[in-house]
Amino acid sequence: MAPVVLALREEPALETILVATGQHRQMLQQAFDIFGIVPDHDLSVMRAGQTLSGLTNSVIAGVDAFLEAANVSRIIVHGDTTTAMAASIAAFHRGIAIGHVEAGLRTGNLAKPFPEEFNRRCVDLVADLLWAPTQSAHDNLMAENLPEGRRILVTGNTVVDALLWASARLDAEPELRAAVARALPAPGRERRRILVTGHRRESFGRGFENICQALRRLASRSDVEIVYPVHLNPNVVGPVQAILSGIPNVHLIEPLDYLAFVYLMKSCDVILTDSGGVQEEAPSLGKPVLVMRDVTERPEAVAAGTAQLVGTDPERIVISVLRLLDAPGSWQFSAANPYGDGKASERIAKSLLSQ
What we know:
Layout: H1 2-9, E1 19-20, H2 25-35, E2 41-42, H3 52-69, E3 74-78, H4 82-93, E4 97-101, H5 116-126, E5 129-132, H6 135-143, E6 151-154, H7 158-172, H8 174-182, E7 192-196, H9 206-218, E8 224-229, H10 234-244, E9 250-253, H11 258-267, E10 270-273, H12 276-285, E11 289-291, H13 299-304, E12 307-309, H14 314-326, H15 344-353
Parallel strand pairs: 1-2, 3-4, 4-5, 5-6, 7-8, 7-10, 8-9, 10-11, 11-12
């Protein structure tokens, strides 16, 4: 959402107010610092061990109190988070217009990803401005026969805007690039680097244990090193530490700020992830992505060959990674990023001005 905020604040005809929930505050602050953004309001909803229902309740109440006090003509939410869904409900109850960035993504299965598939469907049902990142997402929305008055615009995905901005900054500032590199594990000599991210709720439990067992097997190769910024959720930290800690060529590190993560993506050989955003970022960097999920709401990446679904089966993960490492010529994909050209935020801002 950062590129959207910056684009909106460049428009004198628009007054933009940024409301943060305060979830994962350390990770959140890193993003604010990198993009030079300061939230206008902080809901401070984070509580240890809170349930999804508890979080939903806190966000609805917090956003509703803000909307009652502020003169707001529209809210804009992004993606498929519980925050986006709950904020949309609060605005809908007050009759306030809703714009949805990254609208129309679908797997067709409410349990995968959970609860994200439910969240984004809820937002799309009540939003009147739907910014679809791809033609496929646009077609999904058209097929759902949404209520009259909905405007659906294909914009590209704002994650590409952010990626290109960060990548260009790293390329243009050698001192910044060197400082980022010093804060990360030094690359092993003649080792192939695998970057791993994982946080999906549907993989909690056995799924994450299987992922970690696959990584342990991959780490048995002397020509491989694994860098894993571990998500702060205890359901992730537990199995990761239990199965992977103490292995010399497995670097379990704290969550990274965005610039450091982009640096790692640029420098790795293979990406293993369950993240949606990484599936969109990798094509711009020419990196192959193995998606540790059974379904994806981003089929364009699979169709273009930039991503492959491998699920959480250890054998399938290991075989797929080794194929990429040992036979890199077998991996071919379109040079064009199916998720946009880096101008999605500009298109979103212009569409608001035309209202």
